[in-house]
Design a protein that fits this description.
The complex is a heterodimer of chains A (240) and B (104).
Chain A: H1 12-35, H2 44-50, H3 59-67, H4 69-89, H5 106-129, H6 137-153, H7 164-187, H8 200-226
Chain B: H1 3-24, H2 28-52, H3 61-92
Helix pairs in contact in B: 1-2, 2-3
The chains are: A mainly alpha (240), B mainly alpha (104).
Chain lengths: 240, 104
Amino acid sequence: MENRDPIPDSGPIVRVLSIILGVALFGILATAVLDLDVEATGLTDTVMERIGESGVDHPPTAVLLNFRAYDTWLEVAVLLLAAWGALVLRQATRLPEQPAARSPGPVLDWLVRMLIPLAIVTGVYLLWRGTDAPGGAFQAGAVIGAALLLLRLSGYRSIGLFSAAWLRGSLLAGFAGFMAIATLLFITGWTFLEYPPAWAGLIIVIVELLITWSVAVSFVALFVAARPDDSATEPVGGER
Amino acid sequence: MSEFLIYGLAAAALFAICLHGIITRTHILRKILALNMMGSAVFLLLITIAERNQVDGVADPVPHAMVLTGIVVAVSATAFALALARRYHAQTGHTELHDEDGST
């Protein structure tokens, strides 16, 4: 790629207008912030009162996966759409390894062998820990996703082994599993995304397991699919 | 000036600065970064509110959970935006948005 002049930013008029707009926006937002109470307790007491019914002991986990499960469900949907969108952009249903990308020396080989089991154990630990301490499905998914990515980047086969159906199923697992459980409970007489307190702990662990896998695969899919495939996408009319 | 106001006003300022960035920077990557930072400004405010609402050392879990949700949404949206930007660059060779007639 040739050296180009830095791309010029907007002209002075746009700049001045933008600064005026920014200052005005800051004024409005600052007024809103100043209008807030400096001392308040918000919903802390409400959550702590009912946390016994949630099936977990860690307040944010209780909010994420029980009290406001709707948010988390739709968050998984956003992640699914983003990963799916990246695959669509690449016009791919699988993410096969680039041929001849592999040149691991002995140090890298050794390091990968050490790190992968460690990452898996850390991921599962984070997932399990989420019930009573910071941690949970997304953190665990990020660690396991990083492990899959490390394997791929150092020339081993990881996500490239997935068939199209496996890849799609993995991306969908969190969203679909969440929905299936909620629908099942809905049919048996509970409100949508409401869990019976006696089963809440088990349901949350199952949902978190599925989300962990989906998050891990989605992150890898986003990372891999965002890289232009050198063989498939030729630049059209542009200089390289 | 209380801690709450310092962080709250910092969040408001960061948000406004990022809007300026989105408007004046032409490079797509910079626009995406500015948008991402804008989200961080909102997270800063939410964390400040969670901290303010703490009772007996427990921070308000509702804004706390909102930030956790928001981070994942922001990561997903940013990653998808980057995928779009790279695709756009691969197709056109440009790193900034152009009108139909080719002007910046």
